[in-house]
Amino acid sequence: MEPVGPDEELVAGRRPVEEAFAARRPAMRLLVTPQRRAALERIVLHATNLRIPIVEVEGGTLTALATFDGHQGVALVVAARRYATVDEVLARAIERDEPPFVLALDSLEDPQNVGTLLRSAEAAGVHGVLFPTRRQAPLTPAAVKASSGAVEHLLLVPVDDLAGALTDLHVRGLRIVGAEAHASLTARQADLRGPLALVVGSEGQGLGPAVRRRCDLVVRIPMRGAIGSLNAAVAGSILLFEALAQRDPEATAGATSGTSPAADGPSELGQAAKQAAAGSPKQAVAARKRPAGADADRQAEPAAAPDSAPSPASVPPSGPAVAPARPAASPVPAPSVKPASSAKRSAKPAASPVPTRSAKPARSAETAPSAKAAPSADPTAADPVDGGDDLLPGGPPSAGPETS
Description:
Radius of gyration: 46 Å
Oligomer: single chain
Order of helices and strands: EHEHEHEHEHEHEHEEEHEHHHHHHHHHHH
Mean pLDDT: 73
Largest sheet: 7 strands, parallel
Number of strands: 11
Shape: elongated
């Protein structure tokens, strides 16, 4: 088994290998253990399709090459990683049309913490990560594995002088915010919007003196328990996502553009309460207790009335609606002799000289002009209308023969 060359890098672990393939890093060979080959069939098949040589190695050999035992039986030998510059980081922010968001690591010692912070940085949308080339945990296969392959999608910027690089970022318009346990402001109280460089110190010493002097602001995470500090990776991840919450345009769109329901106007319940307030206090209380859609339902009821069947009392009997039940019925009830048998009609014979079919127009203002003169002859001529209920269909069956 040939060792990894100086121009090569070993990426170990199932997820890091998949992310390396996704990032299209040039690959030289795939290393797998025979015991795990069946479980890694998809990765092996993908490497075969890309014409990447497959080399079987023992688990102990792969552990020695990866320098840790969490490789999951697979590793990929790729070309050496290409690091970025500060200009490329700022250019990525311009491409995304976002204010620059940079993470700076100040002399972290644990590769696991480095990998965890890189994973959180990629998830939070950081444009690039700065770290010193000296007194810093190297980007080993264990750190890449801890990042779950997030390093394949990040711009990593190694610098010889971290304090000088932070000064350069400050000149370019970025605010330098450091994490410190005894800061006066919490991360929630500080303004983390706009161009920002967040600095996380080492596990034991925190921020170095030179880096601390370059900070425009230091913040802390409030603690309520007996433990007085957090792991560097955990604390840095909390600060990253606090900054993301403040910088996310979707989270602040409602407050800045007025898209909340209260800004658009009063709700249905509020409108109902205002309308009821114009009446009595009891109506206002009822409007506040009424559901928001109750008024809309009540307003929609008249619109549904035409679809419902008309009641016989509201529609005059005409046409085929009443013809099957009573063939003798007409738009205007024909029997005129029925009022003559009543006491009211017998007391006013002058209103109807001849109680025949010709008396029917006298009761309808639309059918004959002579009906208009009948009220002027006798002011009480309108009384036969009072007996109109007797003329509706359903009166005595004797009315039909009398009109013939």
